[in-house]
Amino acid sequence: MSEDVHLPESAFNLLPVEDKKKEKAPRYISKFRPAVMLERKLVKEPIRTMGPARLELPSPENFLKKHSKEPKLPEQTQSSKDVHKTCSFTERKPPVPRRNDKPLMGIHTKRDFLKETPELVPMKPQPACVDTSKGHKQVLENSGLVPKFITRKDFGRVPAYLQQRTHPSCC
Predict the structure, then answer these.
(1) What are the backbone dihedrals phi and psi of residue 36, each rounded to the nearest 5 degrees, phi first?
(2) Among 2, 97, 130, 151, which residue has the least CB neighbours within 10 Å?
């Protein structure tokens, strides 16, 4: 079994065999790499975020107390306490008249009630017809669904300018 196996001789076996391995191009290295490395060293320190944070531990005397994190109301001063008793911004109003007191007559004011009254009256909503179940409205005023001009004096009569045209004496 240990016999050598010889392949048949050939002229091609006599030629020297050349290695056909291609030479690799040099590896790409960015021309900005040194600048990036410098920039990285300037900004960061090595292993900055690894491990527990290096902080000063709070002293045991300054422990958290109950309700210490809740917001506190400002302390009341003497002037803020007096505001609730009497209003300091206005004078004291006269007392409400009794039921059997008669009103004073002849008091005049500069207030014009005729100008103020129409402004205070609330506006009436425009009459509208709801068309669909979704709530689409149509205002009735200009829709033609409500009779508008039947109450006029000249409703149903021929206008005066048409009567003049049809009259034979005008032309």
Answers:
(1) -65, -40
(2) 2
Residue 40 and residue 22: Cα distance in Å, rounded?
A: 37
Taking the CB of residue 23, how many other CB atoms lie within 10 A of it?
A: 5
126-169 per-position pLDDT tens digit: 999 999 999 999 999 888 888 888 888 888 899 888 888 887 77
Gyration radius of the chain's alpha carbons: 52
Two tokens, residue 26: 């040099």
Q: Which of 9-18, 112-121, 130-139 has the highest mean pLDDT?
A: 130-139
The three-class DSSP label of residue 35 is: helix
Exposure pattern of 52-87 as b/e (b: 16+ CB <10 Å)?
eeeeeeeeeeeeeeeeeeeeeeeeeeeeeeeeeeee
DSSP letter assigned to residue 61: G
